[in-house]
């Protein structure tokens, strides 16, 4: 009877060690996975930030190109179109031709601002 009891204890101890070995293996795999993850997360964050910055810069480039094309078109019109040049010059210098009547309309924002400031007084 002592022999069977000894075998039972040996088997029980073996299973405990097997369980501990399994737990150790899982912990090692988890530790390796966390190390790998910690190595790749910071560069990935920098990559995402860089892509966002590139997108913002591309938007700025597109806006600047639009502005450049608009101003280039205006310069070309000022150089080539006499009527456009005359219209712009008369508008900026507040000049008018004989027999011409000029009507100036205030923008809606300026009118609202004046009304609001007069209402406060």
Let me know the largest β-sheet.
none
Q: What is the 3D form?
A: rod-shaped
Number of helices: 3
Question: Which value, in Å, is the CA radius of gyration?
Answer: 40 Å
Order of helices and strands: HHH
Low-pLDDT runs of 5+ residues are none
Question: How many β strands by DSSP?
Answer: 0
State the helicity in percent bands: over 70%
Distance between the termini: 109 Å
Q: What count of domains describes the coordinates? A: 1
User: In percent terms, what proportion of residues is strand?
Assistant: under 5%
Care to describe what's here?
By secondary structure, the protein is mostly helical. The chain has one domain. The chain is 86% helix and 0% strand.
Topology:
Blueprint: H1 2-80, H2 82-93, H3 108-120
Question: Which labels suit this protein?
Answer:
121 residues, mainly alpha, 0% strand
Quick structural gist:
The protein has 121 residues and is mainly alpha-helical. Helix content is 86%, strand content 0%.
């Amino acid at each position: 009877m002592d022999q069977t009891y000894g075998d039972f204890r040996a088997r029980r101890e073996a299973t405990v060690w097997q369980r501990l070995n399994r737990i150790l293996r899982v912990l090692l795999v988890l530790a390796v996975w966390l190390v790998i993850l910690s190595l790749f997360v910071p560069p990935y964050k920098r990559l995402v930030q860089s892509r966002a910055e590139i997108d913002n810069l591309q938007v700025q480039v597109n806006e600047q190109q639009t502005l450049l094309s608009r101003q280039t078109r205006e310069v070309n019109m000022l150089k080539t179109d006499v009527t456009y040049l005359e219209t712009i010059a008369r508008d900026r210098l507040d000049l008018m031709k004989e027999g011409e009547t000029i009507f100036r309309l205030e923008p809606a924002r300026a009118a609202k601002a004046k009304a609001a400031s007069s209402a406060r007084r």
